[in-house]
Batch of 3 targets.
Target 1
Amino acid sequence: MKGNIKEILFTREQIRDKIAEAARSLAEEYKDKDPVIVCTLKGAFIFCADLIREMDIPCTVDFISASSYGDDTVSSGNVMIKKDLDTDIKGRHVLIIEDIIDSGNTLYKLKEILLKRNPASLKICTLLDKPSRRTADINPDVRLFTIPDKFVIGYGMDVAEKYRQLPYIGIFEPLGE
Ligand code: IMP
Ligand code: MG
């Protein structure tokens, strides 16, 4: 998709500062729990990498890739696991790391799937929260930023697989045809 970066929403310094703050309290909460950090692919890979390096506690890091499928015009809320965890999470403390919660459908289903595996606990940490678009009954335990209903890119997030490498978060403006 062709378009422009309309505005920088959060600079790399703003992101870094928020991550340091969140990492401090997460490290305190999980320091004796050897948590399983579940990075949701692909969007959360940069956030997760920066967050866990700031947390600096014993943990297992694993990756999961889920995507919505079904009716392609209306989000059906069905979720397909494209890449599952390698780790058995039974009895473990799980922390899901998300890039952004929009409708919440993907995460709602993902949480349901992971809870069936009987973890000791399961919490969600998201970099961005777009609460105005929520349709599923789900909220993060930790959110770093709340944002308006704009399409954002960078710092792991894409539009058509581009812009993930930007060190900041920008608002994407599609170019009219
Ligand atoms: P949801 O199921 O509607 O909450 O959206 C799930 C996923 O869609 C997020 O984890 C992101 O990967 C992607 N997504 C939602 N909004 C945006 C956005 O503004 N920019 C980039 N990706 C987004
Ligand atoms: Mg995501």
Note: The chain has one domain: 2-64+79-172.
Target 2
Amino acid sequence: MEFVTYQAEGQIGIITINRPKALNALNSVVLEELGKTLEEVDLNTIRALIVTGAGEKSFVAGADISEMCSLTKEEGETFGKKGNDVFRAIETFPVPVIAAVNGYALGGGCELSMSCDIRICSDNAVFGQPEVGLGITPGFGGTQRLARIVGVGKAKEMIYGARNIKAEEAYRIGLVNQVYPLEELMPAAKKLAATIAANAPIAVRNCKKAINEGLQVDMEQALVIEEKLFGGCFETEDQREGMAAFLEKRKVEAFSNK
Ligand code: CAA
């Protein structure tokens, strides 16, 4: 692939957007490669994914403005759908996805991070949806996910004002879970991924499904979703091993993903 690299380190997969000349901006090729990379992740082995950007300056500086500048209405819609489809694949990816935001996360970059389950960032990170300054709306889910993560009022303030925010503010409003010095970001992302990977994988996947799907429906239905996923765990070897280990006062050796 030209712009996306993938590396498996044991049970952790690392996807890097690698187009440093354009601060890792997302053109159609990057989006297609990102989609293909997700399809190729070996879910028998990988228990958590990390998404980051190449270099020390930018996670992703947005959708590619030079590609978008001459789009027609129909092409604009198609480009939006292309981004939305890939980001939705991340949001619904079976295993948790951590965004390790190493610099600018603007427009499509902020949107990419928000399609991940958890965001952590470096202290030089900048988040924002600057699209109205370019005469467009956010187009890869920003109007929807930012409001859901930080609340409607804060999202509207940021989006209407095209106001970028620094790491500290992103932390204060709950857009990121933690801020690190740049050199500590990837080690922290790997540590977080390893913590997740050490737990029962089917249970972790079911938690992701329960939280994501439950948030789309009312509480009655949400609790039914949880009950079914909870029940499903009792068909797994990992539930038997996890509970047996507790009762026998020993540590789980390793969950088998069965
Ligand atoms: N698209 C295309 N190219 C981009 C880009 C983008 N989003 N962001 C940066 N680049 C390119 C620049 O054009 C420049 O290329 P050249 O060297 O060939 O001129 C190179 O990356 C380096 O960028 P700068 O020289 O601008 O670097 P800087 O340090 O001075 O500024 C920056 C960094 C503040 C991030 C600035 O590049 C910037 O404002 N970028 C655009 C951010 C933006 O508006 N993103 C939203 C895009 S719209 C969108 O994403 C819509 C959507 O929701 C789908």
Note: Residues 22-23, 25, 61-66, 83, 104, 106-108, 111, 130-131, 134, 138-140, 142 surround acetoacetyl-coenzyme A (CB under 6 Å).
Target 3
Amino acid sequence: MKDLTSPFYISENIRKSGFFFKKNLGQNFLKESSVARKIVDSLDLTGEECVLEIGPGFGALTGFLCGMAGKVIAVEIDHFAAGVLREALEDEANLEIVEQDALKTDLLSLLYGREESYGAYKAVSNLPYNITSPLIMRLLDIRPRLSSIVLMVQREVADRLAAPAGGKDYSSFTAQVRFLAECEKLFDVSKNSFMPVPGVDSAVMRLTPRETPPVSVKSETMMAEMIKASFSMRRKTLANCLSSYFRVDRGTASDLIVSAGIAPSARGETLDLADFARLADAFHDAGIKR
Ligand code: SAM
């Protein structure tokens, strides 16, 4: 199992390859092997799995993954980082490096457009922080195929994902993600574990995609719209948010909200998933669309 976290390895490769850290790609590389190992251990690998890694960088996680998974597909946007990784792990027959933008690549066909099949499919990433939300949603888009997703995120994002309804950290993103997956904060990681040192601390989360949603809804699309709509204007009442988002008059919105057992003067951030589900069904039954 290779440890590709040492500051010496990182500095040497920067010198040799012409690589430089790009802030816009969220390039803060992990330089503590114990943390990298703990992240990979959180995937509970048996050696049979195919693991999709987003943003392998110089391979802090990838080295461990190659020794512990059946197959590793690593998607890296940075050509220089991919070159360093290819050279460092050239002996690993189970590694495939895909030089692409993970926000644009068809992730599902990367996993399934191949002849071999694996016991389970899992994903892992020390996420580039500037694209955390869209990447999480992309991974959740392929959730029926993934049994586990382990992610390093900014600590603030971890707190948001674990936040209870009504709290200051609860957001539309929290509700959307929790509808699709169980979210568990595993451990904190100090900003000093990275090179270069970022401005904030991090935390590792496990998202376990749900086989069935925690609340049943007639339309998952309407559920997603309803969550977005309810948080669309944070200081406004639910009636105002929904009438403006769905372009219906305030009276119609209020009647539908009441029919879902909720006060039109409530605020979106106080609603839990069951509330959003009743609201989504009420608007769906009334034939309302965005
Ligand atoms: N996994 C490495 C580690 O733990 O040291 C690097 C993590 S660094 C926080 C994020 C990595 O994601 C960088 O290598 C960066 O180039 C890559 N990256 C950024 N945006 C990406 C994208 N859209 N698609 C694929 N990789 C991306």
Note: Residues 25-30, 54-57, 60-61, 75-78, 81, 101-103, 126, 128, 131 surround S-adenosylmethionine (CB under 6 Å).
